[in-house]
Amino acid sequence: MSCNAAIRVQISPGLVIGTRRLRSALDPNPPQASRCTMPSLTRAAPPTGAMSPRRAGARRRQRTAATHGLRFAFYGRMSTVEFHDRTTSSGWQREVAEETIRGHGVIVAEYFDEGFSRRLPWSERPAAAQLMAAAEHTNRLFDAVVIGEYERAFYGDQFNAVVTTLRLHGIQLWLPETNGPVNLEDPVHQALMLLLGSQSRREVLRARHRVLAAMHLQSRVQGRFLGGRPPYGYRLADAGPHPNRAHANWGRRLHRLEPDPATAPWVRWIFQQRATGRSVAGIARELNDRGIPCPSSVDRGRNRHRTKHEWIVRTVVGILENPRYTGRQVWNRQGARTTGPAHHRVPTRPPTAQGWAESEKVIHPALVDGATFLEVQGMRAARLTQDGGTRTYVLAGVVQCQLCGRRLDSHWVNGRPGYRCRHGHTSARNRPPELAKNVYVREDHLLNDLRVRFAETVGDDGSAISDYLRTNDLTIMCGGPTREVRAYSPHSALTTRVETVGDQLLLL
């Protein structure tokens, strides 16, 4: 056959195209050595003006796909960096991805997240966020995205948001589970994606339940130390080989708490001072005056996030409230939680001992006896005034602002005990104009209102009412549009008649 003779290739019944050579037809730049005089069809010259970047990018991707197949971006993820190896985890996921796209293209870009949970949306994973940002560019390096394993990339309904965004930019999403690109118009693919999303969520919930149940049992029955920073006054000591034979063969050992000779005496001193009625602030001041290293100074390796190295009231309170100093192991004990958006967090108090796991027996040497520990809980030191008297606030610590969620500060008003909330404002800076007005409430007004509500349950004694509130973990809510007394306790029950309002209890 001469060079000018055309090869006829039948694509489908009824469709026949002519070309010199199929490879030459697909190659936009044929070799110069192939000189054929056969005339070829040419496109009309484009109109005057440069081609739009989007059209130019699409043209380049079409030429590359015709020559080498699709260009893929690979995405993978591993949950932790402590227990996973990047090379191994990325290797097997990429191997599965390459098997999925074999014969259809090559991987030209890789995005891999390390140490990020699947529960985080893609916008909060660095590598995933970079992939989505690259997908928006017209001159991106890839035409499609391939995932090594669905559960590594998506959780719950995250898939729909990601695939919708990629489709807006003309990018396919390939999965091993579909053996190719996902087609949301296919009912089978739709059902498969729903099943995979539910399976991913179920896997997380099952793993979480098993781990938490096991850790709860290990703490309560075995009294095992499950990791974390040892409390101030203790240090870690070897407790023998790991009970799991496989872990023991790898050389893993258990740890237990033992008193630290340098700091344990100061923990005992703090409890002794508090038991005598001394204020927490006074204890913190004396510790600073004596130059006693605070917890962040003693253990810098585990407290690199701490910038200040001095005793503060909150540090002393944390020691006084920690039941580990009684010799019992405690797990899942958490401090204050925060609610609301990230830019305006409101601290709230968790229910006392809700969800804790406390060992059934004494596990490590105690730094304080159980009676003294219980005695200092909830203790408030009376503050001397200039005339030598004391000011007592019966409801201190149990009055909460309904507007911002903060605890009201004890405040002496016109010779009477009261409480106020400045919504986080201090005198060190000017008051923002948008900040709500201060909340002031007199203690006698609160007690009068509580006496009416608790007349049949507690009586009219203010101290008895205060003890009842603290025992049942109740908080008085005030400062709203109308002066109402609310008690917050989603886990405790009142014997008086109440009306439920969300997760609050409105005393009637």
Question: Count the helices. How many?
Answer: 15
The portion of residues forming beta strands comes to 15-25%
User: Averaging pLDDT over every residue, what do you get?
Assistant: 75
Distance N terminus to C terminus?
Answer: 102 Å
Rg, Cα atoms, Å: 34 Å
Helix content: 25-40%
Strand order of the largest sheet: 4-3-5-6-7
Structural class category: alpha+beta
- Overall body shape: extended
Main sheet overview: 5 strands, mixed
Please tally the β strands and state the result: 23
Unreliable spans are: 1-46, 335-353, 489-508
Provide a brief overview of the structure.
With 508 residues, the chain is α+β, with helices and mostly antiparallel strands. The protein has 15 helices and 23 strands.
Overview of this protein structure:
Helix 9 packs across helix 13 (370-376) and helix 10 packs across helix 12 (313-320). It is built from 15 helices and 23 strands. It is 33% helix and 20% strand. It is α+β, with helices and mostly antiparallel strands. Strand 11 and strand 12 (346-348) form a beta hairpin. A five-stranded mixed beta sheet has the order 4-3-5-6-7, with helices on both faces. Strands 16-20-21-23-22 form a five-stranded mixed beta sheet, with no helix packed on it. The chain has a three-stranded antiparallel beta sheet with strand order 17-18-19. The model is unreliable at 1-46, 335-353 and 489-508 (pLDDT under 50). The longest helix has 36 residues, at 187-222. It has helices at residues 22-26, 53-68, 86-101, 126-135, 150-153, 158-168, 187-222, 245-249, 264-275, 280-290, 295-298, 313-320, 370-376, 443-453, 462-471; strands at 7-12, 15-19, 70-78, 105-114, 144-147, 172-175, 180-181, 234-241, 253-259, 330-331, 337-339, 346-348, 357-358, 383-384, 390-391, 399-401, 409-413, 416-421, 439-442, 476-478, 486-487, 498-501, 504-507.
